[in-house]
Amino acid sequence: MKFGPVDIDETLDWAKWEWEEFLAFYKTSLKEVKETPEEIAKVLGVKVPVQKPKKAEA
Amino acid sequence: MTTWKNQGNGESKNFLKDVKGLIVIAKNTTQTVAAAKTLAGWQTLINPATTGAIKATYIDFERGFELQTPKPEMATSNTGFKEKTKDFPPEFTGYGNMSYDDYKTWFPADGKEFDFVPVMQDGKILAPTTSAGLQIGFFGRLFVNYDLPKAGGAEKQKAHEFTIMFDDVEQMKSAGSLKTDFTRRDLASVVPVGINIEVITAYENTGGTVVVKATKRATSEPYSGLGTTANWEVVSLSADTGGACTAISATQSALGIYTLTFLNSAAKLTGAFEIQANAVAASHITYLSNVLNIPVS
């Protein structure tokens, strides 16, 4: 699956990847892509950590 | 072999044409005789759609072919009676019409067992059949020569020497010459074009990347057709339980340069591994690289 000049093997079991592992991979191998780690992770099926909603100010 | 009967003499006295090439096949690979007569039949073995399905290749012996088969043993008993007491299976030396880089790709096959089908000058093939009537190759072994380059002149043409020894003379007895619908040039042209790959930046074992350069074999012409992960396969691993080309950056593919990430799932590979590249067009492998060892420090 192409992201700019980089092709990623989408057949791998990306759902098993931890988010930190994917971020490390992104920094090393996906430096040339425009998409954010979250955008690519969603396409590949990597579990993106859910951000906790901010507490409403009193 | 069939029963001996008088069978007439043909009006033509033609010799069998010279052997000009050899199909080298994985042991015990068979196909129907009808398929063996067609280029399509051999393409399913020589350049199928996936490397895992490759079962055969073709060596061009245009540079020469010399029989080395020992003469049959003739023994005379103490009674003075002389007769043939032993036949030997064929042996020969063929001189590959290829570059030294091509020849080097055969080094790991030294002493390896294969089935062999000689290809004649006129495109006919010489092959035995199984008891089920399927075409098979002659069972035997292949040897290469690790010598230094030969001096110029005629000897130079014998540089890429293959010694082939068939192991069973009985197969010769059942072999037949099959008229094919292709020429040996057709056969040579379906063999994937050789690509050389070499490491230009070593495997980086924190990120798992390695930079590799691909050129058309024995030239410095870059090859740009390897820009997807599907073009790259991990052939063997020395320490890890798995490994694959996870990502590839092809921004410099016009120069034949690729930055490849090889991982075992998310983990970096911990031991040396081997890779091979290929390109597929119209369901046939058209380009195939050497197997490259990637050291991991």
Topology (SSEs and partners):
The complex is a heterodimer of chains A (58) and B (297).
Chain A: E1 2-3, E2 6-8, H1 19-29, H2 37-44
Antiparallel strand pairs in A: 1-2
Chain B: E1 19-25, H1 33-36, H2 39-46, E2 56-60, E3 65-67, E4 73-76, E5 82-86, E6 91-95, H3 100-104, E7 113-120, E8 125-127, E9 138-144, E10 161-166, H4 169-174, E11 176-178, H5 184-190, E12 193-204, E13 209-216, E14 232-237, E15 244-249, E16 257-264, E17 267-268, E18 273-281, E19 284-289, E20 292-294
Parallel strand pairs in B: 12-19
Antiparallel strand pairs in B: 1-2, 1-7, 3-6, 4-5, 6-10, 7-9, 8-11, 9-10, 12-13, 13-16, 14-18, 15-16, 16-17, 18-19, 18-20
Number of individual domains of chain A: 1
Q: Which two chains form the greatest contact, residue counts included? A: A-B, 20 and 22 residues
C-alpha termini separation of chain A: 46 Å
Roughly what fraction of the amino acids of chain B lie in strands?
35-45%
Biggest sheet of chain A: strands side by side, in what order? 1-2
Number of separate strands of chain A = 2
Counting DSSP E segments of at least 2 residues, the number of strands of chain B comes to 20
The helix content of chain B is 10-25%
Based on CA atoms alone, the radius of gyration of chain B comes out at 23 Å
Low-confidence stretches of chain A: none
Distance between the termini of chain B: 58 Å
| Poorly predicted parts of chain B | none
Q: Output the helix-strand order of chain B.
A: EHHEEEEEHEEEEHEHEEEEEEEEE
What share of residues of chain A is helical? 25-40%
Task: Please indicate the percent range of residues of chain A in DSSP E strands (runs of 2 or more).
Answer: 5-15%
Largest sheet of chain B: 9 strands, mixed
- In quaternary terms, these chains amount to heterodimer
Rg of chain A: 14 Å
| Structural class by helix and strand composition of chain A | alpha+beta
Which structural class is indicated by helix and strand composition of chain B?
A: mainly beta
